[in-house]
Amino acid sequence: MAANPANKANGSLAFDIHDPEPWRTALTRVIPLLYRMLVRRGIHAALAEELTQRTVFDAVRKIHQFDPTRGSLEQWMVAIAQNHLALEMRQRVLRQTKERERLDSLKRMDKALLPDELLEQQETQQLVRAAMEQLEEKEREVLLLKYHEDLSARQIAKKINLTEKAVYNLLYRARNHLRDKLITSEPLFRKGPKP
């Protein structure tokens, strides 16, 4: 195989696809160059090796596209490696985005009630409302202030003009009466909460 003088000027060789020796010589120079270039860009060694390998395979497969008038073989293969790197970075961002979306979706699913849990919650709310309606006005008021408005015993005492001790006693009685009403209206309440 004879070297083309125009190609020698820019450092590349004309290749005979069937002659392995020029390839061996060129790849011996180019492969370490590509690998070092990728590692210097902060690419993990294993990924740099994989991208170098892809670049060499693409160069061998597409050698008929190599145009020595546009640059050397090294420049051509560096461009191929840069394209592979850019593609890998785009895919990495896409994978991270998809993974983040999957995790967000799983978090939302964990927080959301299942249909049977939602139905059970609604039934429980109806039973509690019905039992609350059966309580005396003062008991119902003190429970609503404590659990619905999240007030302390001191705040409740000020609001309904009672002493703190009287509020504690009223809350105790109201909770017991509410529990009794729930047990009589729904026997499942006797078992207590699910383990």
What does this molecule look like?
The protein has 195 residues and is mostly helical. Helix content is 73%, strand content 0%. The protein is rod-shaped.
Quickly describe the structure.
Helices cover 73% and strands 0% of the residues. With 195 residues, the protein is an all-alpha fold.
Low-confidence stretches: 1-13
Number of H- or I-type helical stretches:
8
DSSP strand count: 0
Radius of gyration: 38 Å
Order of helices and strands: HHHHHHHH
Tell me the name of the CATH homologous superfamily of the largest domain: RNA polymerase sigma factor, region 2, helix turn helix motif
Report the sheet-strand fraction.
Answer: under 5%
Largest sheet: none
Mean pLDDT: 82
Highlighted features:
single chain; 195 residues; mainly alpha; Rna Polymerase Sigma Factor, Chain: A; Arc Repressor Mutant, subunit A; 2 domains; 73% helix; rod-shaped
Q: Could you outline the blueprint of secondary structure elements for this entry?
A:
Layout: H1 5-9, H2 20-40, H3 45-61, H4 73-111, H5 115-133, H6 137-148, H7 153-160, H8 164-185
Helix pairs in contact: 2-3, 2-4, 3-4, 5-8, 6-8, 7-8
